[in-house]
């Protein structure tokens, strides 16, 4: 009996030991499992943080971009977009989840994105967008394999090329204008020379008249080329202004002297009303060119028999000096007052050409004045006359 009890006790003890070992093992396993899942959680948290950081970094980069970006997922819905898209298309709210047509409301754009997805190659498109102001957009689209949906996504990039387009248009207009301005006097010269060769030279009266006309058009060509060189130098920003202190009155005196014969031919008076003590700091040759162009215009477009006045004054409180040239001519209509400073803009093209004008004089004036940090304005009363006012920066030391 007692041996049976002993065996039972030993068996129970054995079971208890096995359980104890098993329990310890389980605890170790549970602890190990808990440790590993903690580590896993930490790793996942870190990955999530990294992803969030990357995402906000990517969004910040996208939002800093001047170009608009839209990413479409495999189902053709907006996954991401940046602020530039909102600005360029003037759309509001969250565009995510919308189709491109719903988001940007442009049929041609939706078709273009579909084409880029179907063809699987980079495509480009030019798009006019009329919002608060009209802009020309260069749109590039490229497809990519969308990992999440399995289908093909599309990335669209919108680049505002309005300024480039404007420059291109200006350049084209300029070349067309220059060609026209060169061709007109050249064909006239050619015509007169041919007539002289064909026999007109035998008549001294006729040939004298023709030669004077040829000289007039040759002069016009020479002025045009001179003005073209001046404007290209000024517009390239390479023109240096050699400023020095000096008196304005003698400078105006030289212009009046140079143009006296031209004024006399129209029975006009040129008056230098600049105060003797007025001193300023400018590039004297350039300012002389400005005044020459303005007085020359006063003679060309002023009233025959009338007066062209040049005046000046210092306004120390405003820190500027004002120089003006006024005439008593037909004047300039209000809508043309700003435009006369554009290259080749003329109110009366026939009159300008007849007078040997190049259409560049006031553009040159504007550039020189701006290079001095000043501005030039035209004021006019139609039928009574015009005043061109040049405003230049002035400091007390300029009077020294
Ligand atoms: P242009 O060689 O034709 O004179 P400008 O650039 O000097 O070229 O002037 C541009 C245009 O502005 C002229 O063609 C003329 O129509 C107008 N204009 C300039 N000055 C005057 C003025 N004093 N009075 C009236 N119109 C003027």
Account of the 3D structure:
The chain is built from 10 helices and 12 strands. It has helices at 2-64, 83-89, 100-104, 107-119, 162-197, 204-235, 248-265, 284-301, 349-354, 361-371, and strands at 68-72, 78-81, 123-130, 134-145, 152-160, 244-247, 269-272, 279-282, 307-315, 320-326, 375-381, 385-393. The protein is elongated, with a radius of gyration of 41 Å. It is an alpha+beta fold and 400 residues long. The chain has a 5-stranded antiparallel β-sheet, sandwiched between helices. A 5-stranded mixed β-sheet has the order 7-9-10-12-11. The longest helix is centred in the first third of the chain and has 63 residues, at 2-64. Helix 5 (162-197) packs antiparallel against helix 6 and helix 8 (284-301) packs antiparallel against helix 10. It is 52% helix and 20% strand. The protein folds into 4 domains: 13-57; 65-160, PAS domain (Beta-Lactamase); 162-239, Signal transduction histidine kinase, dimerisation/phosphotransfer (DHp) domain (Helix Hairpins, Orthogonal Bundle), CATH 1.10.287; 240-400, Histidine kinase-like ATPase, C-terminal domain (Heat Shock Protein 90), CATH 3.30.565.
């Amino acid at each position: 009996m007692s041996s049976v009890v002993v065996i039972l006790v030993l068996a129970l003890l054995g079971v208890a030991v096995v359980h104890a070992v098993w329990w310890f093992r389980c605890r170790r396993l549970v602890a190990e499992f808990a440790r590993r899942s903690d580590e896993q959680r930490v790793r996942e948290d870190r990955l999530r943080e990294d992803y969030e950081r990357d995402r906000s970094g990517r969004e910040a980069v996208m939002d800093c971009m001047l170009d608009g970006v839209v990413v479409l997922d495999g189902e053709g819905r907006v996954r991401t977009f940046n602020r530039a898209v909102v600005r360029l298309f003037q759309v509001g709210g969250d565009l995510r989840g919308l189709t491109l047509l719903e988001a940007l409301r442009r049929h041609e754009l939706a078709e273009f994105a579909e084409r880029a997805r179907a063809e699987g190659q980079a495509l480009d498109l030019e798009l006019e967008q009329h919002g608060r102001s009209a802009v020309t957009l260069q749109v590039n689209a490229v497809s990519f394999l969308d990992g999440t949906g399995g289908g093909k996504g599309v990335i669209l990039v919108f680049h505002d090329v309005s300024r480039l387009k404007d420059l291109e248009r200006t350049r084209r207009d300029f070349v067309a204008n220059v060609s026209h301005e060169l061709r007109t006097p050249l064909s006239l010269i050619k015509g007169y020379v041919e007539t002289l060769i064909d026999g007109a030279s035998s008549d001294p009266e006729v040939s004298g008249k023709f030669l004077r006309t040829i000289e007039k058009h040759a002069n016009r060509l020479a002025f045009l080329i001179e003005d073209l060189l001046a404007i290209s130098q000024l517009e390239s920003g390479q023109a240096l202004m050699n400023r020095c202190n000096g008196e304005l009155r003698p400078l105006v005196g030289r212009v009046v002297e140079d143009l006296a014969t031209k004024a006399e031919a129209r029975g006009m008076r040129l008056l230098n009303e600049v105060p003797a003590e007025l001193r300023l700091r400018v590039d004297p040759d350039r300012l002389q060119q400005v005044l020459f162009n303005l007085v020359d215009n006063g003679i060309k477009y002023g009233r025959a028999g009338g007066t062209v006045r040049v005046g000046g004054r210092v306004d120390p409180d405003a820190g500027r000096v004002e120089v003006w040239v006024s005439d008593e001519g037909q004047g300039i209509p209000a809508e043309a007052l700003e435009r006369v400073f554009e290259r080749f803009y003329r109110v009366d093209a026939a009159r300008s050409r007849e007078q040997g004008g190049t259409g560049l004089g006031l553009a040159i004036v504007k550039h020189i004045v701006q290079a001095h940090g000043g501005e030039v304005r035209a004021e006019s009363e139609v039928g009574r006359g015009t005043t061109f006012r040049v405003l230049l920066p002035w400091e007390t030391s300029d009077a020294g």
